[in-house]
Fold these 2 entries.
Entry 1:
Amino acid sequence: MSKSINDIFRLQGKAVLVTGAGGGLGREFARALSGNGADVICWDIDDKGLDETRKLIQEDGADAAVDIVDVGDEESVKAGILRAHRAVSRIDVLINNAGISTRPVRVHELSFVDWERLIRVNLTGTFLCSKHALPAMIKFKAGSIINISSILGLSGFYPGQSVVGAAYSASKAATDGFTRQLAAEYARENIRCNSIAPGFFSGTDLGRERRAAASPESNEAFRSSVQSRTPFNRFGTPDDLLGLIFYLASDASKYTTGQTFAIDGGWTAT
Ligand SMILES: NC(=O)c1ccc[n+]([C@@H]2O[C@H](COP(=O)([O-])OP(=O)(O)OC[C@H]3O[C@@H](n4cnc5c(N)ncnc54)[C@H](O)[C@@H]3O)[C@@H](O)[C@H]2O)c1
């Protein structure tokens, strides 16, 4: 008999570690995966956010483990991986989702402190979590690493005001390069690595520093410049990403590696 969709996209029994799951997109990934049978471990530096994520998952009738881990701190990541291995025998899927943006300014105004802070979380964090999750994946000869990059790593965008800044774009372009190299290095051990490059999504906290610093008029100008530049003429919502998350987390993607998938309402098509 040919395989069913449930066999191909099965998540039951998969252990999934989601970083930055105390809010935003990561919380929605954790909810969707746990709600479909995966054993989910949520990492964040925001303990209240983690508690809220766990509460929502429990209200959905599932459960998840939560742990305070700073992805940009190697000791914190190492200790978190040890604790994760006590909770689940193996990590099948790692979603490197934790990320920040800093106050958006142009390059000549960008402080070294903000540059370093952003690169430490967005890029170094992706490296550290992958590095410390990989040994067990190598041992079990299986794994899927999903890196959340951005369309801003694929093309520049400056609608007359700074949106995120070059450190963010650089971190996301580098994440895609990291994805391809990791994919090439570990395919023989049956470990795959792909990036999801979202377009502009609403309903998350990313960009709060920009929004707080900007006038209502400039926030509205930003919103309308993004919307009119997007062929679907709207921002994405977290559920727009879930189909690809299910694909990359499950064995449905067992022959897919090294790719960057833009989910952007057509932004990169134009
Ligand atoms: N929202 C968008 O439009 C959009 C677009 C493209 C890419 N992304 C990417 O998606 C990912 C999630 O963003 P979001 O929009 O949900 O933002 P968000 O700010 O709502 O959530 C990010 C989460 O990461 C956590 N975090 C921050 N620093 C951390 C650290 N050092 N260690 C562990 N956790 C940390 C935060 O506490 C927060 O819970 C990010 O990588 C972001 O760059 C978002």
Entry 2:
Amino acid sequence: MLPAAILILQLGSLSPPIPQAEADLAQSLRAEQPAACPASGLAVQVLGSGGPVAEAPRAGTSYLVRVDGRPRLLIDIGSGAYLRFAEAGGNVTELDAILLTHLHADHSGDLVSVLMSGGFEDRTEPLPVIGPDAAPRFPATSDFLSGLFDPDRGPYAYLGGYLDGSEDKPLLAPRDVATDNGDGAPVTLMLGHGLTVTALPVHHGAAPALGYRVDYGGKSVVITGDQSAFSDGFETALAGSGPQLLFAHFVIPPGPGQPRALHRPPDAIGELAAKLGARRLVLTHNMNRSLARLGDGLAAIRQSYAGPVTVAYDLDCYAP
Ligand SMILES: [Zn+2]
């Protein structure tokens, strides 16, 4: 058994402190925030700007897409984002869909909590829940939901009404998108309120995973989801598309010793932003380990991308 001091040191190394200069740099790159999300047009509110490690003040990854101020799409709902959903004025009744990039817990951990909250509302329409298909150790999105709420064996069997619409629960309408280890074809989804969403398979290690493009009123926003730099189909499909906003997950600092099969290092984030012609790059899914070397990460991004770069904080709102 490891001595306690060594164990604490190892655990502590997962969440290194952010040097003050880097913390100040992150704040300086935060976009100036309006008093409230815009009351008209498209906006993306970052509900959770953090990752899998519990690091205040960031909740796990989540986005709320608003149209004319109203909450219409919930994209991922990582641990802690349930509270941000409430703080943002989110509610399940007004959602056109819940979109999941993948089923890692830092992207889906608060899903049951949000659904349960919706069970206290008066939504009558089925609720689409769209996400990736299955792979070893990862259920398809539909099986994830049916497993949770299975009336016989589900850990939340008592909430089985989500599977059949009984007990005043909103009926879930799951849809699995084929990912083919990141090589699957993009799928276009028409989701109401003038929103067109394209689900784009990406490569994220062993996890079936998607990125999303959201189009509204001639403007587009791209959310990479968790993806490695081996996401060739994603890059090709969106090359030169010029999204107004590109949300990229800033999980790892530059240099060796990082999980490159799972995430884009900063230089590959810059290459992606340049290839897409993004008008603005927003770094989110921030972690202490990446923010602690934010200056180095920015320099790596700048090798390819010269546009504006912003660091997201929970509840920050962006209008394309
Ligand atoms: Zn992940």
